[in-house]
Design goal:
This protein has helices at residues 3-25, 39-49, 67-72, 126-139, 156-176, 192-200, and strands at 57-61, 79-84, 97-99, 112-118, 140-149, 205-212, 222-229. Helix 3 links the parallel strand 1 and strand 2 (79-84). Helices cover 36% and strands 20% of the residues. Helix 1 packs antiparallel against helix 5 (156-176). The chain is built from six helices and seven strands. A seven-stranded mixed β-sheet has the order 3-2-1-4-5-7-6. By secondary structure, it is an alpha/beta fold.
């Protein structure tokens, strides 16, 4: 598919997927707020900051523009660093961001106190998600924070939305980074308990806490998974 056709298809799928989410969330309405710092992301950052300490070194894997780190830094005196498959042209210039290959993180063992993966893992195949989390655990001393598209269970509209999101996001990411390949299915779109079980089975993980962001986010599916690590994982 040529570049223009791919972009048009991605935009169309994104609109259809957004409509599915809008319909699924109609019973409680939606929230809106636009600025350099989006309102709901600020609220998410405030929640995560309560789980951090001043002086923490924090890595964001798949950081995009670096906005989540910039928002966290408003609430905690952190040392931020981001990595992504490509450095975003509209990045927050105050956040150090490094391009990486999507596999090996370019940091020594235990380099960070906490690492975030915000809406990243569901874009991967299970084996790649396992490998990436192993790398994250390797470079992290204390906590891993996953923010994911997750619910206690997925109804029809959300299952449809997840499938559409896989295609449209894949088109965008394949255009932006040649190392990315769209996964063949929605295997990593997991429910709350699905994520708990998957995370608990990974090496180095000692515990998982789940916090829904439905009360502060624009949609019900935004969920935080607070993953504690065993000391042996960074000894």
């Amino acid at each position: 598919m040529h570049g223009v056709g791919r972009k048009l298809a991605s935009v169309t799928l994104q609109a259809v997927g957004g409509a599915c989410v809008l319909l699924a969330n109609l019973p409680r309405g939606t929230r809106r707020g636009w600025s350099r710092y989006r309102t709901w992301d600020m609220l998410k950052a405030r929640r995560i900051s309560a789980r951090l300490r001043d002086g923490d070194r924090v890595l964001d894997v798949g950081c995009g523009t670096g906005h989540m780190l910039a928002e966290l830094a408003l609430f905690r005196a952190i040392e931020p660093h981001g990595v992504d498959l490509a450095v975003h042209p509209d990045r927050f210039t105050e956040i150090p961001i490094t391009a990486f290959d999507g596999r090996a993180l370019p940091f020594a063992d235990g380099s960070f106190d906490a690492t975030m993966l915000c809406y990243v893992m569901h874009h991967l195949e299970p084996r790649d998600a396992t490998a990436l989390l192993a790398e994250v655990v390797r470079v992290t001393r204390r906590k891993v924070f996953l923010i994911e598209d997750s619910l206690p269970e997925f109804g029809f509209l959300y299952r449809l939305r997840n499938r559409i999101h896989r295609f449209e996001a894949g088109m965008r990411y394949e255009s932006a980074a040649t190392v990315y390949r769209t996964p063949p299915d929605e295997a990593m779109f997991l429910t709350h308990e699905g994520w708990r079980a998957w995370l608990a089975a990974q090496a180095g993980v000692s515990g998982v806490e789940i916090e829904s962001f439905a009360d502060i986010s624009q949609h019900d599916h935004h969920t935080l998974f607070d993953v504690s690590l065993r000391s042996a994982s960074f000894a």
